[in-house]
Amino acid sequence: MTVGRRGVLAGMAVAGAGAGLAACGSKGTGAVLPGDPHTRNADGFGTDPLSAFGLHQPGITTAAPAHAIIAVFDSVAPDRAGLVDTCKWFSREVTSLMAGGEVGHKSDLYPPVDNLVVGPSRPADGLSITLSVGSSLFDRRYGLADRKPRQLEPMPNFPNDQLDPARTHGDLAVQISAHTPETCQHAFRQLMRATRAGTVLRWMQEGFLQPNTLGEGRASTRNLLGFKDGTANPPPSNAKLMDSLVWVQPGAGEPSWATGGTYHVVRIIRMHVEFWDRTPLRTQEQLIGRAKDTGAPLDGRAETDLPNFGHDPGGRVFRRDGHIRLANPRTAATEKNRILRRGFNYSRGYSANGQLDQGLLFQCFQASLDEGFVAVQTRLNGEGLEEYITPVGGGFFFALPGMREANDWLGRSLLS
Ligand code: HEM
């Protein structure tokens, strides 16, 4: 009989409650990584809460936990007042879900207020929920045209894209992330129920990851190409850097309601993993620019070493069309193009021709869409890795500023 990781942990937490063992990290070594639960309850759910309130929404600079759902909705609210209702209902549910705790009112005569997918006492489980708006919300329906974030447009077709309209664009994007898939599903269904009058699900994608230690309180992960991913992300703990790269600041030329928000890019990028798995290791490493086992840049020894492209103008060590060289050439002029990535792996089974349908549920956040994702993707157009990946969906969105306190609601600065 095999016992899953969760079962072992739940058993440990119960058996060791008196001895304080419940505080063990999920690695079983005592190490707690960013994005990992610090403690788990007897059912295996994380006990760490995140705050729903602040200048910014959670789920952006907060460390990525192991599971996520990105769901995109179309708004069917008949008018602006209906859209306000959608946002208020959504925000109330977010506040309640992220607070965790006992599920309230119960009556046999009504549908249960909670689906109980995570039980009668909702665990915190590192849950965060992030709401973003797409450019289509600023069409004529709600009289918002003059409030559109300056750079928010429908995501264009980049040269390697084969976008599936059924998995692209939308009015409202929701990112739900937590330590367990159950917590994500629970929150997702509660949110759908709360906003049913004003929204229709357009597309969704689930994702997962496993954090690897990076030292200095940071973590990367491994993507489904088998490479360490997230290594060179700007550190979210550096608030000053986040203010310059991620959060829209007053005076940035954006509508004033958008201060504290950020441009949110989602890309569903399919990987041709069978082809990749038949590709020589050396080629794989040159296409990325890093060693596959350690994650070190090809001119370094440790994952956190910095690559020096300046020493290699001819591309002897780093291919000139290699991923990290193009994504971040590390020149003074390209510093402003740095983005905060928060991607997850995805697996959707297999396609009709018997090939695995796996890839990267890529997300990134930036204060300027043009200087961030668009500049980086434009440099990546034509990269060697394109043979192995095909972007098939996603969209451009704007993550709303945060809720300040319990009576606040997401979208207040935009809609009132
Ligand atoms: C399936 C598609 C992709 C794969 C497999 C992939 C993989 C990787 C890997 C393995 C790294 C090195 C580790 C790290 O620093 O995170 C990396 C870095 C990076 N990637 Fe990607 N990536 C993909 C798509 C993208 C896209 C669409 C963008 C943005 C347009 C992007 C932007 C970056 C950036 C900015 C870095 C950091 C470069 C640095 O600062 O050294 N990646 N990626």
Q: Your description of this structure?
A:
- The termini are far apart.
- The protein is α+β, with helices and mostly antiparallel strands.
- The radius of gyration is 22 Å and the shape is globular.
- Residues 1-28 have low confidence and may be disordered.
- The strands form three sheets. Strands 1, 4, 5, 6, 10, 11, 12, 13 and 14 form a nine-stranded antiparallel sheet that branches. Strands 7-8-9 form a three-stranded antiparallel sheet, with no helix packed on it.
- A hairpin with a 2-residue loop joins strand 7 (212-215) and strand 8 (218-222).
- The chain has helices at residues 5-15, 80-99, 181-194, 239-245, 273-277, 281-288, 323-327, 370-380, 412-415; strands at residues 67-75, 101-102, 121-122, 128-134, 172-178, 199-208, 212-215, 218-222, 228-229, 262-271, 340-341, 344-350, 356-366, 389-399.
- The chain is built from nine helices and 14 strands.
- Helix 2 (80-99) packs antiparallel against helix 3 (181-194).
- The structure holds protoporphyrin IX containing FE.
- Residues 223, 225, 227-232, 267, 269, 271, 288, 290, 323-324, 327-328, 339, 360, 362, 373, 376-377, 380, 389 line the site of protoporphyrin IX containing FE.
